[in-house]
Design brief:
This protein is an alpha/beta fold and about 350 residues long. It is about 35% helix and about 15% strand. The strands form 2 sheets. Strands 1, 2, 3, 4, 7, 8, 9, 10 and 11 form a 9-stranded mixed β-sheet that branches. Helix 5 runs parallel beside helix 8 and helix 12 packs across helix 13. The chain is globular and about 60 Å long. The two termini are about 35 Å apart.
């Protein structure tokens, strides 16, 4: 059985007690260093979060009521379900209807859009029906195996589904999260630019999950590539010591948007197989760990119009608690405080 230390997995009741004295921290965007910081979590629907008495009041027991409640507590959320299945336009319409007009959605790109496999059965029927016979029988497919017109269809359907958010000004960015086997090669950089171009002017952000992009040989070239193309680099905090580990560097590569994602630091589950995704990120940051990032987020906010801070440690109320704690740290941070 996989376990975490009591300090970082104390349970929902302990995490809730840490909210005492925080007031409404995180409810609204925070003006910091000339920019604006939006804070939220990378889920609002995980069963560990919707469980009774964890985050939502008892009366918020429908999908509509839960999103409405979440949007009353935070100005930003990340949608990860779109990685596993292409979204439906009606779903985005409901998200728009259930949230304030200034609420923001960051949306993760579908797996096929970043070179990763997807379950064949979860593809829309119109795409499944046009798959070549040898692909229809496979449990998973990669974009590289699809005929060109079906690769085009994936991007087109994804964009069309999110159009209601785009029209309403509620689509913050599309997160292009690349896998750990995506290496710093010319071909990889071309794939990033191709994905950006296919997304028709929608703001994208790039998260890389192989540390070789940031080794001594490649780090300068990686950041220059992103900066030259005004592509926001997704800064991350996560476990170290793995091939998929990326150093927690602070780098703003676009004047429009900076993003920081917190994955937790649970090393024993980071690359474990056969476990629920939520277990990988089952980690409650302590105050000292959050304090490491507060001045760095402040500095990022001074370089970009908007900074999005997303807690991906979405087990129970861990992400929501840490989001509000980080908001309070930023609200209290004196302008003259120096970053590390």
């Amino acid at each position: 059985m996989i376990t975490a230390t009591a300090d970082h997995d104390p349970g929902a009741q302990v995490a809730a007690r840490r909210l005492e004295g925080l007031g409404d921290a995180g409810r609204d965007p925070i003006a910091v260093a000339g920019g604006t910081v939006h804070i939220g979590t990378a889920s609002w629907t995980d069963p560990t979060m919707t469980a009774k008495g964890v985050f939502y009041p008892d009366e918020a027991d429908t999908a509509e009521e839960r999103l409405q409640y979440y949007a009353s507590r935070f100005p930003l959320v990340e949608v990860d379900a779109t990685y596993y299945a292409l979204p439906a336009r009606r779903t985005a319409e409901l998200w728009r209807e259930r949230t304030p007009p200034d609420f923001t959605f960051d949306v993760k790109a579908h797996a096929l859009m970043t070179g990763q496999p997807t379950e064949t059965k979860r593809l829309p029927k119109v795409i499944r029906d046009e798959l070549p016979p040898d692909l229809k029988s496979k449990a998973r497919v990669y974009a590289r195996d699809l005929p060109p017109h079906l690769r085009d269809a994936v991007f087109a359907m994804f964009l069309d589904a999110l159009e209601p958010l785009r029209e309403a000004g509620q689509l913050g960015s599309i997160l292009l999260q690349y896998p750990r086997w995506f290496f710093p090669l010319s071909k990889s950089r071309e794939e990033i630019l191709e994905a950006r171009d296919r997304l028709d002017g929608v703001q994208v952000a790039v998260e890389l999950r192989n540390g070789s992009w940031f080794n001594e040989k490649n780090v300068e070239r990686t950041l220059r590539f992103l900066e030259d193309n005004r592509l926001p680099y997704v800064m991350v905090d996560g476990p170290q010591g793995f091939k998929s580990s990326v150093p927690p560097i602070t780098a703003v590569t676009s004047p429009d948007l900076a993003i920081v994602r917190f994955h937790g630091r649970r090393t024993e589950t980071w690359e474990a197989r056969g476990i629920p995704t939520v277990e990988r990120f089952r980690y409650l940051y302590d105050r000292g760990e959050l304090e490491e990032w507060a001045p760095r987020i402040r500095d990022a906010a001074g370089q970009a119009k908007q900074t999005h801070v997303l807690m991906n440690n979405c087990y129970a109320n861990y992400g929501a608690t840490n989001a509000r704690e980080m908001a309070k740290l930023l609200e209290d941070l004196k302008p003259g405080t120096a970053a590390d």
